[in-house]
């Protein structure tokens, strides 16, 4: 359930997205708040500026949280973001330990506003293959004493 406090922080994330556009960057902004609502970190999309396809604000904040916060602290945080995290960012959020995400626009709504954002092709994948060979490094890492 989204509260009035959530809405206030979500509006701040939307403001970050608006400032990103003013700076010549893509219109996406995010912030990470602690359990008391204090803003811990903010970021916006710098994919074009940095020539870095991973420079999404959600991914930047997930990296920051994983690096700077103890797991129990990260679990109590909420990310507020102007758009629903993409698959890349969603995976990073899981691994970062961030406890919750609140977003303004759903992916489907973003695609309605900008059809090109839904035009990503699916990358062909083949596998699994070479199980016995591939398990060697995995076994060595996870079963090392």
Can you give me a brief rundown of this structure?
The chain has helices at residues 4-22, 47-50, 57-68, 71-74, 87-96, 107-113, 131-142, and strands spanning 29-33, 39-44, 78-83, 100-105. It is α+β, with helices and mostly antiparallel strands and 145 residues long.
Describe the protein in words:
47% of the residues lie in helices and 16% in strands. By secondary structure, it is α+β, with helices and mostly antiparallel strands. The longest helix has 19 residues, at 4-22. The mean pLDDT is 96.
Stretches where pLDDT is under 50 for at least 5 consecutive residues are none
Order of helices and strands: HEEHHHEHEHH
Beta-strand content estimate:
15-25%
Helix content: 40-55%
Total strand segments: 4
What separation lies between the terminal Cα atoms?
A: 45 Å
Structural class: alpha+beta
Mean pLDDT: 96
Which word captures the global form?
Answer: globular
Number of helices: 7
- Largest sheet descriptor: 4 strands, mixed
In spatial order, strands of the major sheet run 2-1-3-4
Gyration radius (Cα, Å) is 18 Å
């Amino acid at each position: 359930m989204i509260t009035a406090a959530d809405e206030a922080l979500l509006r701040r994330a939307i403001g970050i997205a608006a400032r990103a556009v003013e700076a010549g960057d893509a219109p996406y902004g995010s912030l990470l708040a602690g359990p008391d609502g204090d803003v811990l970190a903010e970021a916006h999309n710098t994919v074009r500026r940095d020539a870095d396809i991973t420079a999404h604000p959600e991914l930047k904040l997930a990296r920051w949280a994983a690096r700077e916060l103890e797991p129990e602290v990260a679990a109590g945080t909420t990310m507020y973001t102007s758009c629903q995290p993409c698959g890349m960012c969603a995976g990073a959020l899981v691994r970062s330990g961030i406890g919750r995400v609140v977003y303004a626009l759903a992916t489907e709504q973003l695609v309605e506003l900008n059809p090109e954002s839904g035009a990503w092709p699916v990358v062909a994948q083949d596998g699994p293959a070479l199980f016995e060979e591939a398990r060697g490094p995995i076994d060595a890492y996870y079963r090392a004493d």
